[in-house]
Amino acid sequence: MKTADLVDAHGDDVQFCNLPFLKLGKKKSFSGPIATVKCFEDNALLKSEVQRPGEERVMVVDGGASSRVALLGDQIAMILRDNGWAGIIINGSVRDSAEINDMDVGVFCLSVTPKKSVKDGAGKAGVPVQFGGVTFAPGAYAYVDADGVLTSSRDLG
Questions:
Q1: I want to staple 19 with a disulfide (CB 3.0 to 4.6 A). Which of 34, 63, 132, 134 is the partner?
Q2: Could you tell me how far CA 82 lies from the centroid of its own chain?
Q3: Topology of 3-152 in CATH?
Q4: What processes does the entry annotate via GO biological process terms (predicted)?
């Protein structure tokens, strides 16, 4: 499904996340039910969550738009891929971008940085997160392609 077609067909039933995402990985589009993590400069909870079966869900991470440290690197990207996640949207940074770009994953993020995050486990999972003018609620749907990121409260497929 193309996001442009979804906007045309569903109008106000979809919301557009208005952030300038970098798009990494070989998977150029993905969609599915939303799972969430809210964390700031600490990726231990994110790693724990993507170790669960992804079931073609989209992981949405509110990292507070930090560009200082990466919440995702090649190791967590491999876990995401191997556990069946559709893709990941990060309001924050990643590292190992060249390796991730060669992987069969879909990663949308704000920036890249070489610095890794702390691993204290701070944050919350399964809570609504807000960024880019959109609320991402667990169980709602995300649609992602080269044109951007949309959300809907229901499955449009």
A1: 132
A2: 16
A3: Glucose Oxidase; domain 1 (3.50.30)
A4: regulation of RNA metabolic process
pLDDT in tens, 23-67: 999 999 999 999 999 999 999 999 999 999 999 999 999 999 999
Mean per-residue pLDDT of the chain: 97
Contact 131/78 with Cβ under 8 angstroms? Answer: no
State which H helix or E strand residue 49 sits in: helix 44-50
Please check if 76 is assigned to a binding site.
yes
74 is in an annotated binding site: yes
Is residue 145 a known part of a binding site? no
H, E, C per residue of 73-130: CHHHHHHHHHCCCCEEEEECEECCHHHHHCCCCCEEECEECCCECECCCCCEECCCEE
At 56-108, the pLDDT tens digits run 999 999 999 999 999 999 999 999 999 999 999 999 999 999 999 999 999 99
79 in a known ligand binding site: no
Query: Does 96 count as an annotated binding residue?
Result: yes
Q: Is 57 annotated as a binding residue?
A: no
